[in-house]
Amino acid sequence: MQGMQLPEGTDTVELAVPDAFGILRGKRVPASAWPHVAENGIHMASVIYTWTPRCEIRDDDEWLDPSKGWPDMQAVPTGDLRPVPWRPGAVMVLCETKDEDGQQLPVSPRDVLAKVLGKAAAMGFEVRIGFELEFYLLDPVTKRPKHRDIQCYGLARGAEYEDVLGPMRKHLVDFGIPVEACNTEYAPGQIEVNIRYDEAMRTADNAVLFRNAVKEIAQQHG
Fold first, then answer.
1. Confidence at residue 3, expressed as pLDDT on a 0 to 100 scale
2. 97 in Cβ contact with 108 (< 8 Å)
3. Cα atoms in the Cβ-side hemisphere of radius 13 Å centred on 57
4. What DSSP designation does 26 have?
5. ∠ Cα 5 25 215 (to 5°)
6. Which of 68, 127, 153, 216 sits 20 to 30 Å CA-CA off 58?
7. Cβ-Cβ contacts under 8 Å for 151 (sequence gap 6 or more)
8. 132 and 209 assigned to the same domain
9. Other CB atoms closer than 10 Å to residue 177's CB: what's the count?
10. What SMART domains does this protein map onto (predicted)?
11. Most confidently modeled of 48-57, 100-109, 112-121?
């Protein structure tokens, strides 16, 4: 597929699909399988759009009837190939999902957003958005914030987290996520990161990639 050439040194490609809660689901394939996957996509169970964040099966879903099973869908690479800087050799790509007839799935978050953006474009609008994303850094032993007091915008307090936040900012930027700034927020262990505004779909893609990335990078640092 044109524009889908793997960077030199790639050994693993991660095909990522955001579920209804913004959690990345997907599969990993060896680089040797990439030419076929890039052209044809890869099968995944459509149940990812109907279960909870803990993969609990709901029996009240209006779109998928559990009594009939969950048919496979095709995850087709559609985003940029993004080398994963904190895991050398890995490349991640976002996918759109289609049913067995090649139609977009109506419950896919990316498809829902695409339809909204299409309506906005028909009205003469271009939608550009930015995000202020927040998370907590917790002590790996206690599973609680290291401090109990609040130091919002505190540079000294932020410096205590720089062994994690410094590499995190660099990795995020190298991953293609335009970080503008970060700071401590108004709760113990709370961190805010500002993502520069851009075209709405790209910014939404960056948001789900950000959520996954900060978890992985934080875990690498304990």
1. 57
2. yes
3. 10
4. E
5. 95
6. 216
7. 157, 184
8. yes
9. 23
10. Gln-synt_C (SM01230)
11. 112-121
Identify whether 49 is part of a domain: yes
Out of 15-19, 108-112, 198-202, pick the least confident: 108-112
CA 59 to chain centre: 27
Least confident of 46-60, 126-140, 191-205: 46-60
**Residues 98, 25 within the same domain:** yes
Task: Summarize pLDDT for 9-35 with one digit per residue, the tens.
Answer: 999 999 999 998 999 999 999 999 999
State which H helix or E strand residue 43 sits in.
strand 42-45
- Domain enclosing residue 194, as ranges: 128-220
- Confidence at 201, pLDDT banded by 50, 70, 90: very high
CA dist 154 and 94 (Å) reads 36
Task: Establish if 2 belongs to a structural domain.
Answer: no
Neighbours of 222 (CB within 10 A): 9
Cα–Cα distance between 172 and 214 in angstroms, integer? 8
User: Which residues are 184's β-sheet partners?
Assistant: 191
Domain count, the chain: 2
| Whether residue 216 has pLDDT greater than 90 | yes
Same domain, 35 and 101: yes
